Amino acid sequence: MKLQFWGAARTVAGSMHLLEVAGRRVLLDCGMYQGSRKKAFELNRDLPFEARSIDVVVLSHTHIDHSGNLPTLARNGFGGPIYCTPATGDLAALLLRDSAKIQESDIRRVNRRRKRDGKQPFEPLYTEADAVAALECRSPWDGRRYPAGSPRHGCLPSPPRVLRRRDAEDARHGSRWRRARV
After folding, report:
1. Co-location of 88 and 54 in the same domain
2. What does the pLDDT look like over 20-60, one tens digit per residue?
3. Same domain as 99, residue 57
4. 33, 105, 118, 155: least CB-packed within 10 angstroms?
């Protein structure tokens, strides 16, 4: 087993952790780095691994610093499933499309200035089409059975390997706890 911390290390943004186990590459979150425009653009554009090499993504929650770079991952060739709760999947659909619109709008504004200065235009980090491509990979999971497409689909998670944690999406409903497979 090998675990690499590619984001949110020495910073609070850009959560991205790569777990390699049993010949599989599992990416926990694919967040957007936020900071100075130039540094953020470079860190978000250039993934630290080959997107096609990732077998599956597990999305912990929808905050932009955990999900915001999924369209870049899809744009660069990722086509595997993205496992998340149904609520996280629904929110990601809204957030990533909106983020793409902001990316496209910001780059149009920047490129107007660049054109006046005789400079080459930039491309957006990702487009709405990239966001839609990432969203098509979603595989919402209720936590009770293994998700469709997984090798153990239809099986119940084994109780000894269950971690109890508070689900962020349910926090607003009180102190309910949800099981998550580790």
Report:
1. yes
2. 999 999 999 999 988 887 888 888 888 999 999 999 999 99
3. yes
4. 118
Cα distances (angstroms) measured from residue 6 to each of 34, 36, 92? 14, 18, 21
CA 87: distance to chain centroid? 15
State the CATH number of the domain containing residue 51: 3.60.15.10
User: Does residue 77 sit within a domain?
Assistant: yes
Measured distance CA(71)–CA(59) in Å, rounded: 13
Q: Which residues are within 8 A (CB) of 57 and not within 5 positions of it... i.e. 6 or more apart? A: 26, 27, 28, 29, 30, 70, 73, 78, 80, 81, 82, 83, 137
Residue 149 sits at φ, ψ, to 5 deg, of 90, -15
pTM of the predicted structure, to 2 decimals: 0.73
Beta strands per DSSP E along the chain:
2-5, 17-21, 24-28, 56-58, 82-84, 138-140, 162-165, 178-181
Name the residue with tokens 């979603």. Answer: 138
Count of structural domains, the chain: 2
Q: Distance between CA atoms of 14 and 147, rounded to whole angstroms? A: 26
